[in-house]
Amino acid sequence: MSAAMPAREACLSVCFRCKPEGWPGDADARRPGADLADAIEAEATRRGIDLEVLRDVRCMSQCKRPCVVAFSGEGRFTYLFGDLDPARDAAAVLDAFALYRTRPDGFMERFERPEALHAGILGRVPPLISSARQVERRPAPVEST
pTM of this prediction? Predict the structure, then answer.
């Protein structure tokens, strides 16, 4: 993948076991999460993007909000997105991941992400460094008189 950050510093994870509630397939059937992973891989290949950073994950515990992807990396914010459509959202996932990789801390504002990754955000977890963006002390309680 060609971007400002080396591949080892950012990872795109895709839950390949995701299925929407009421999905008619049996337990061993191919699931929509696998279709999303395939769509992302096909779009990456079409764009000439190195797939070294793409990994399949058996379950990401977001069963109520499938299909799910995560962006993560050492010293970076971790993002979790769900409610993705395998037939429609692969390009948006790759566009957002490309942006994520250009940021030293991975931080992305909502307005910067593709539309498909606005409402579908499930979480943004700061890196384990105390100076990370969004990490600050809460205000002291106001004393009553």
Answer: 0.84
